[in-house]
Amino acid sequence: MLNLNSILLFSENPKELADFYKKVVGKDADWAGEGYFGFSIGGANLTIGGHDKVKGKNSNPERIMFNLETEDVKGEFERIKGEGAEVVKEPYMESEADEMWIATFEDPDGNYFQLMSPWKGDK
Description:
The protein is of the alpha/beta class.
């Protein structure tokens, strides 16, 4: 069985992007070195680094998004919006039966990420 344990997000400006995500996740990077910054978030890691083929903003941000789970989507939405994240979609209820809230943001590189309520569906 496979386990998805991390997402690697490349940037032309990894330090700037890491500073942004430091505000989003509410803590310093758990490790940094050689132009890479790693944040342990729940059971996974978000790693940010530079890449010589990545330039400017993401021109196709809908292609891949990652989700940050929280019981308080509305509260975290307001906090992260206050940190300067670009709002793509304000909190909305995806599933009333499961009380599944989702909100979407854009980071400084044009990548999308979402806040989501914990999944309460079939277990």
